[in-house]
Design a protein that fits this description.
397 residues, Aminopeptidase, 9 helices, 8 strands, EC 3.4.-.-, protease, Peptidase_M28, zinc ion binding, zinc
Length: 397
Amino acid sequence: MLPSYRNLYGIVSLCISVLIFTPVQAYEKLSDETLSSLPRPNSDFDIHNGALLSPILQTRVPGTPGSTAVLNHFADFFQTTLPKWNVEVHNSTSKTPKSKGKDVPFRNFIATRDPPWAQVGDVGRLTLVAHYDSKIEPEGFIGAIDSAAPCAMIMHAMRSIDAALDKKWTALQQQGLDEFVEEVEGIQVIFLDGEEAFAEWTDTDSLYGARALATHWEDQFYPATSEFKTPLSSISMFVLLDLLGAQSPSIMSYYETTHWAYQNLGELEKRFKSLKQFKATSKDPWFIDTEKDVHNLTPSGGVLDDHVPFLARGVEILHLIDFAPFKGFPKVWHTIDDDGEHLDMDTVEDWSMLVTAFAAEWMELEGYFDHPKAASARRDEEHAASEAIRLNKKTEL
């Protein structure tokens, strides 16, 4: 990824923010009790033998055995831990400046969970994204913040909300309310391959997997009677995590149409800290643009990253990357020191909690988590009915 202040995609983002109206996404805040009881990854993020993170902390250059091993790790996790998710791999090939005329395989991992009654093409999806490949140079480069740790954060978050999704959707079906829910929302995970350049970052030597997937989904059409035209248009928001895991991150807000979601993350950060649920001790805010009005965001093209091919096609983007003009990227960025030993593990765990809480609020799961002192609320018909009414809200401008 590269910072970019004078590029085509900055123009595209400006046009999108001006010309496209944004649906107001239903979004329900979690209670303090729920925030305080969300599961932590704990030993699963151990860099040596943790079940989620350690298998990703290896070289993962596209087309190499390390890349295959990490892809298999993702597949095993979802098939064994989250068996109700639909898993697929999107394959493409491309020549690179280092491949000597040969095609290199790029494999994007996609996992999706939709309400059980939903029809293909009728589901909007919160989409959480990170790239899993690592740079070819320097030799032995691991890429812990870039982006092994973000992948593990997303995995933990999906595992943490899966049972609550089950409870919510089962409750709606048992009350016969699923057929009254017009705006059906699912959730999707994409681990992209080939983000890194093989030689020098250019439009053709970077974002291999993202470019291929965006093109594929743009040309893949749902049935004519579907709510959405293509898989691209069904993405409610494309939330990209990158370069996360260093101490005291600084996250900017780049797009007017998703600033509200950015501000919700900033509020969650404050709430976690006030509840003493963050392990990291830094008092500086992570989301440095939270107090800014949507019209006062710093004008820029953002940072070139995997979201760019999707942004150019009109997808709503929330880019969570540790970068700010006054500090640049994290110190270990694109160096051999970007490994497990240089992660700030308290920050990594806290990020996983933030992603979990954000996804839970987006999917409106308050009341569907089991708390230690009280097993779930909202099991009676009155609460289920109010849930259906809330989910059935019309799109507002």
